[in-house]
Amino acid sequence: LRMLVTPVNGAKGDESTFNLLKKELKRSKWLSPATMELVYEKQPWLGVRRGEIITAMCTIMHPIMSKINAIAFSKGNILETVTKDRYVKHAASIADMFLDRFNPKCPLTCEELEERSRQLHEIIEAEVEDTPAQELLLKMIAIVKHTLKTNIYMNDRYSIGLRLDPKIMETKGQEPRDTPYGIIFSHGRRFDGYHVRFRDIARGGMRLVTPTSPEQFALESAHQYDECYGLAYAQQLKNKDIPEGGSKAVVLIDTVGMSSSGKDFVMRKSVKGFTDTILDLIVDTEETRKEVVDFVGKKEVLYLGPDEQVIPSDIEWVIKRAGQRGYGTPAAFMSSKPRAGINHKEYGVTSEGVNVYLDVALRKVLKIDPKSDSFTVKITGGPDGDVAGNELMILHREYGDNCKVVGIADGTGCAEDPDGLDWSELLRLVKNDLPIDQFDPSKINPSGVLHTVETEEGTKARNNMHDRLPADAFIPAGGRPNTINANNFKQFLNDDGSPRCPLIVEGANLFVTEEARQELFKAGVVIVKDSSANKAGVITSSYEICAAMLLTEDQFTSNKDQIVGEVLDKLHYFARMEAELLFREYETSNDSLPELSKVVSGAVNAATDALTEALESFSQEDKDKLLPLFRAHLPKTMADMAFDKVHSLVPAQYITNAIASCLASKLVYKEGT
User: Are 208 and 264 spatial neighbours (Cβ–Cβ below 8 Å)?
Assistant: First the structure.
């Protein structure tokens, strides 16, 4: 970029002026449209940094304040209110306090921050009579006080990032729920992202959300944090068998009205901006020590994985960037690396676990032996999907024609047949990575039907297939969260209140809400909760992290077939151990299976936390006596190749967590809750 700059009204620009100009021009590439409009059109006196802080805080406030009044505190209204001429000076003062708090040359002490906050509080209460405006400005003060770290002073950052105390996201009067360990928020050009984690060392997927309309974008913005929280909490429950706690990242990206190529460009840039901002806040380098003021007070370790709309090139960039930025184990920073990872879809790891729970549930609840008895299944998620496609392969592998798939729905339509869809055609779709609308009509039996979303009737049939069709078991293996909820759960039941389907095994996360699960339980539906049913995927990702720390890429790829086979054996073991415990306790309990699943997860996690705390007081010699627990947890080939170097290759805290989680899961699965 080359520019000819002429000082205004004869003013003389010095070096500092031009340095500021260069810095702000460089930043403009990564500013959100809202920030651009604010600092270059509406309130140019603010400057870029203050503008970024204000628009970032407005975005953080949206999911909090919209619970109080969704209309008054819509995203647009929040920004418009705090940047009105009458109130923007107060917003600017709060931004100044934020900048002073994290000024690397002389950061505000906690006492100074408290005094500045008190003064601003008094001024706002005295000068701002409008109640919504006052509430928003006071919440901005609270955000400053709950920020523990920021990259605002880093010159080459992609976006503004805040490491938040999770208490800031709580809304007065909300139902009590577990508080996360930490939150990272990123506000950049056309994207906003949350990373929520429930333990110090944590792992979870990153998903990209790209609404198709302004109205849908506004709705997604309002519940972005809650979706991220819910997914991270579900991850925490299912991570009980591994050293890492649960986390999740949800990146909301504005691609409304863009072409497919433009959308893809923005999505790839957003992945880079979000993950690099996380690295700003967790790496310990000369640059971050110089520019980032740290009120967290300890090193933070987290690992990412791919989720919705993340592609292999994203993974490769993130890992490469982690190495460039000085992350301790860059190959472990994101799982599913194309060459050195265990591709979940290729090996069907999540579905292998789902099917173990289905098998045990059919035998224990419906008294069906699937190896010899006929049974029916309906599935959401296409033959080209990870969980659904692999589940079809496994159902046919394990049970053959005993399993009759009576319905499948995905984004393109649905195929239905009470006598069972043609297996050869289903497997053709899976092997060729094709959705359900590509089902050969000539293979549909006279009793069956193929609907596509090209028609209104087809869209309606697709949307309610999971409710309409009777079946022995329903496997949600795709679909949006909260599809079955407190408002529509009765559609899953017959007119007399009995279930059309007595068993649900949740292959997809959060498909059924908590409230709906309880109502369906009262109606006689047995539900295997997502945090149990699909935990095999996270266990696999944890083993990928271990492999990335213990083995070189060449070592892994040379022994990949053997390692993957051992991982699959581990997955079957962990799934069956929990499934057997769940149904053993279900036989003598009045609680629903999802509640018992949470009890089991809670028991393992509580035991892990207690053991981790106890291990901190152990001498290194005593800790080393427990290392065989960690070794036994690993695939044998991996352990044989590198466990003698575990102390030099794996962070000490990770080893402690691994010992604690291994011992905790063994205790609970053997003794019960």
Answer: no
d(CA 206, CA 196): 11
Is 668 within 8 Å of 604 (Cβ atoms)? yes
Catalogue the long-range contacts made by 265-271 (C-beta closer than 8 Å, 24 or more residues apart): 266/190, 266/191, 267/208, 267/210, 267/309, 268/313, 268/314, 269/189, 269/190, 270/188, 270/190, 270/191, 270/193, 270/208, 271/206, 271/208, 271/310, 271/314, 271/317, 271/318
The pair of structure tokens assigned to 157 is: 């950052």
Gap between the Cα atoms of 383 and 415, Å rounded: 11
For 283-323, write each residue's pLDDT tens digit: 999 999 999 999 999 989 899 998 889 998 999 999 999 99
Q: Are 158 and 218 in contact (CB under 8 A)?
A: no
Instruction: Give the rounded distance of the alpha carbon of 578 from its chain centre.
Output: 23
Q: Taking the model in full, what pTM does it have?
A: 0.86
What is the pLDDT confidence band of residue 18, given thresholds at 50, 70 and 90? Answer: confident
Helix, strand, coil percentages for the chain (3-state, nearest 5): 55, 10, 30
Sequence-ordered list of residues with C-beta below 8 angstroms from that of 476, at least 6 positions apart, any chain: 379, 380, 381, 466, 483, 504, 506, 507, 508, 511, 512
The rounded distance, in Å, linking the Cα atoms of 294 and 104 is 9
Burial 126-142 (b: 16+ CB within 10 A, else e): eebeeebbbbbbbbbbb
Residues 343, 543: Cα–Cα separation, whole Å: 12
Burial of 671 (0-12, 13-18, 19+ CB in 10 A): exposed
Three-class SS state of 450? strand
The band of 22, judged by pLDDT with boundaries at 50, 70 and 90, is: confident
Residue 3: how many CA atoms within 13 Å on its side-chain side? 9
Give the Cα separation of 200 and 204 in Å (integer): 13
CB 413 within 8 A of CB 451: yes
Give the integer Cα–Cα distance in Å for 480 and 209.
11
The residue to which tokens 């055609």 are assigned:
425
* Tokens read off for 131: 């109640």
Residues 461-470 pLDDT 10s = 999 999 999 9
Distance of alpha carbon 263 from alpha carbon 267, whole angstroms: 6
pLDDT tens-digit series, residues 81-115: 999 999 999 999 999 999 999 999 999 999 999 99
Strands 302-306 and 202-209 come out as parallel
pLDDT in tens, 351-369: 999 999 999 999 999 999 9
Neighbours of 387 (CB within 10 A): 27
Question: 177: exposed, middle or buried (C-beta count within 10 Å: 0-12, 13-18, 19+)?
Answer: exposed
Give the C-alpha distances (Å, rounded to integers) separating 229 from 42, 59, 234, 508, 602. 34, 16, 9, 16, 17
Residue 559 main-chain phi, psi, to 5 deg: -120, 20
Residue 2's pLDDT is 66
Give residue 219's Cα distance to chain centre. Answer: 18
